[in-house]
Design a protein that fits this description.
The protein is mainly β. Helices cover 12% and strands 35% of the residues. A hairpin with a 5-residue loop joins strand 52 (706-710) and strand 53.
Length: 776
Amino acid sequence: MMVWARTTGIGACVLVAAMAAAGTSPVVAIAADGEGRPAAATAVAPARGPLLGSEAFRPTPRRPVGWRGDWTGRFRGATPPTVWTRRVKGITTGLRYQASKPAGRPGGDSRALEYFTLKDWLVAGPYPVDDPAKEIDRDFLAGEADVEPDVDAKAGKSTWRLVRVRIDTQSRHDHNDGTCGESNVDFVYVFGKSAKLDLAARQFPDDLDNQVAYAHTYIHSPEDAKVRLRIPFAGEAGKFYLNGRGAALNRRDRGRGAIVALKKGWNRLLVKVSVGKATGPSGQNPWNSRWRVAAYLAPVEPIAYDTRNIAWMTKMTGRSMSAPIVVGDRIFVGSGISDLMCLRKTDGKVLWIRSSTPYDAMTAAQRSARPVVREKVEPLVAKLRGLNEGIVEAINAAVSPRGLPSDAAARLDRKLRARSDAEREIHKAFAAMDRRKYPAMFRNEVSSSNATPCSDGTRVYWLCGGGMKGPGAYVIACFDLAGRRIWSFHEALGAQEHGMHTSPILVDGMLICGINKTLLALDARTGKERWRQSVGKAWKNVFCANSPVPARIGPDNVVLCRESIHRVSDGSQVGRTGIDVWGDFTPIVENGVLINPCQWQGWQKPVSFRAVRLAATGKKGRPKVVVAVDGRESSMPVRGHSTAVYTVASPLCVDGVVYSVEMGGGLTAVDMAAGACLYRLWLDGCNRYNRFLYGVCASPTLAGKHIYVIDDAGYTHVLQPGRQFKEVTHNIIENVHLSGHGGNPCKQESFYTSPFFDGKSLYLRGEEYLYCIRQE
C-alpha cells in the first residue's frame, strides 16, 4: 500500500522535500476524471516513521527497500562521512605535478597524482612536416631534450599554452569508440580551436594534417624512485624524454608501459607526437581524433594500500552493476553470473551466497522426468554449492579496511574464476538439453547480475540473467534473510543488445519486473504469475533498460515504464508517459509529475528537459507537459554532435531542484518551479567515457545534507544542494584490479552503481569490492 499527500503545481516538489525533512515520506497520487482527462492530486495522510538512511529505518511491505533505496535516491536520515580515501602505499601517492615551471618546492600550482594520471600540461605546436613518420626526430625547439618550458614562453615558432585534461578538452567522445578511454592531451581539440575547426558541422581543415606537437609537464618526487610509465597515443609516430633521456613510443604498447627512474626533486617529461590525417572515421563514428596522447605514472607491483575512513572492504564474486541494499543488520548485493550475496553490515563478513540456475526453478517431478538432470546437472549443482561455501571462507579471510595487496588478490581471483567456471558448466548442460528453453543466462554486457535486489524486511527478491541480444534466460527468486530459497522462477524471455539492467519493484504484494519486451508480475509470497504484458514488435517501450517506477493515478497504483503506464492490479495499460526517454536511465516521479531530463528531440537537436503530469489518458493520449526546458540550456552537447551524450544515471530531486548527470560527466540543475536551468557544467573528475568504459552511470544520491556523484573511476564529488554549484570536497579510491575488465587505464577498478546509505555508513560497490565507508 502507498501513502499520498495533497499538493498542486510544480512548486510542490519543494513541499515534498520539506515534508521529508520533517520526518514524512510523501508520494503523491494523481486522479483522473470519468472521461480519463487529467485531474488534480488527491489527498491522503503522509506515511510516518524513521527516515530512509537512518539506523532506525527498517523496510516493510508498505515501505520496501530496493534500487536507490526507495527509488528516489534520497537518504535524508543518513549522516555519512564526506571525506575518505584509499591510496597506493608507495611513491605514487607522494608525487605531485604541475604544468608551469616550478620555482622551488611544490606549491599551489602543483597537484597530487590521482589515479596515476597526469592532467596538467603545456602544449606547443603545430609544426608542419612532409613525412610525419620519418620526421618524428626533427627538433622544432632547438634543443627539445633539455627544454624547461613555462606558460606563454616561446617554443620555436609556437608558444607554450596551458591545457588541463578533462572530458571537455577532448575533441571527440561519444558512445561508440570515443577518445576518452584515456585522459588525453587531444591536439585536435587544442589546435582545432585556433584553426576554426567546426566540429558541430563536421568540417575538418586540412591544416591539422601532417603535423607535430609537444606536451610537457613537471613531476616532483620526494625521493629517488621507480614507477611504471605508460604513454598511450594516437598518431603516426611518437617519442618521449624523461629528464632529457629519450625513447620512441610504441603505439602497440597500450598496457604495461615501462619501468622508469624518477630522481628526487623535479623531473621533466616531454612527449612528442606526429600525425598524418588528424581526423577521420573510426568504427561507427563519422569522425574521430587521431592525434592525442596520455601519460600515467603507475606503481610497480606488488601493490599495497593505505586508507582513511574505510571500515572494511569485501571481495565480490564477480563484476556487476547491482547496488547493495541494507535490511536490518544485513547487506544484500548481486554479483557475478547469478550470485546473491548476504553480508553482515558491521564487519563485511559474508553470511551466505546463493547462485541461481534453471535447476532451482524445477519441481521434483520435472527433475525426475529428465534422467540427464540427475546424471549430469545435479553433480554440477552439488559442486557449485560446495565451492560457494569455500568461497565464503576465502572471502571472509580477506576482509579488511585496506583490502588485499595485489599478489593476494590474484590468488583469490583464481579461486573465483574456478567457481564461476563451475556455474557456467551448469548452464551449458541445460543448453545442451534444450537451447530454446534454456539459453545462456550469462554472456552479458558487464554481467547478468545487474539488478539491485529489493526487500520487504522479511524476504529479499532477486532477478538475474539475460544474455546478449537474442536468446536469454532469467531467474527470479525469493529468499528469506537466512538464505533459504522460498521460490524460484525461470523463463527464456530474450534480451536486447546490451542485456538486462533493470531492477524489480514491490507493489501491492507483487514483484514486478521489466524484462526485455515483457512486463511481468509475480505473487511476492508464492512466485506464481499474476499477469504479464508484452510490447510485441515495438522497440521504444522495451522493459530492459528503464526500471519500472511505482506511482498512483486516482484510486489505482500504477507502474510506469519507458512509454506506457500500467495498472498494478491487472497490468492493463491505462496511459502513456509521453516523455521520449533518450538513454537507459529511469525517470523519477515527484508530486505526480514524471521527470525526464533527457528527452529525445531528434539527431539534429540537443536533448531537452521535460516533465509531465501523470494521468489516465489511454493508449493514444499524451499527458500534459508542465515543464519544458530547451536542450540548448539544459544539456551538455558533445563536441562534434548536436545531441547530448547518452545518459544512464537517473535524476535526483532535492528541494525542487532536479540534478542530472550524463555519461560524460555533464551535470545540470533545473529549478522545477521556475522551469529554468540553474547551472550546467562538466565535472572535473577522472571520468573517461567510451564504448567499453561507461562513464558516469551511478545516479546522484542525497545523503543527509550532501549530494554524492560518483564516476567510473570511483571519484566521488560531494556537492552542496542549492541554486549554485558548490563542490564541498572530492574523494578517490585507488585500486589496481589486475583481473578486471572495466576498461580504466592502469587497471583502475571501475565503479558503476549508486551508493546506499545507512546511518553513519556509505556502502559503495565497485567492480572488485564492496566498500563500507564510515568515520573512523
